[in-house]
């Protein structure tokens, strides 16, 4: 029986995978969902250690590692370190939307977005997480994959509708720019596959059947 380890997004819990797990289990997989470390003390090393500890504690054997949002970034990092992993899956995980930007001046766009992030990071835990996201080069992480890596992106997040007009314009430019970058990575990095789903950010809650189908199809 093949194992699957499932990771939640920032501020979320393992319960978010409740709709996907039955479909994977019906296909013959053993699933385990875990929570991740607290955001105020977040580090990529600590998150990867939590994944390794869960695998050891539960006797998982070469599990598929799939995560949503922040958990998806952890899964992508796992793919750079574990060539024995049969599949890593990042479900709509992104770093700070400061670049690459398509259709706006990159310096001005980054200035606008960083000002917005600073304004909304008065909480120490949020500020800490923003700094940790800044430290992660996501395109380089994808290119460094050593096992198959599936990146599932939402195409109808609606985030721009919640933002001030100038910030929304930059966020839309980020969606275009990062989409182009990701397509380029997939063309030149054989281990990386990409898929889009017409959902909001919580892809695994809005389209659980499609997420399960994509995971199974890429094994």
UniProtKB/TrEMBL annotation:
Q: Which GO terms describe its molecular function?
A: hydrolase activity
Q: What is this protein called?
A: Alpha/beta fold hydrolase
Q: Where is the AB hydrolase-1 domain?
A: 4-213
Keyword terms, alphabetized: Hydrolase
Give the top-rank taxon of the lineage listed in the UniProt record for this protein: Bacteria
- InterPro entries from the UniProt entry: AB_hydrolase_1 (IPR000073), AB_hydrolase_fold (IPR029058), Carboxylesterase_BioH (IPR050228)
Query: Can you name the source organism?
Result: Nonomuraea mangrovi
Keyword Cytoplasm attributed: no
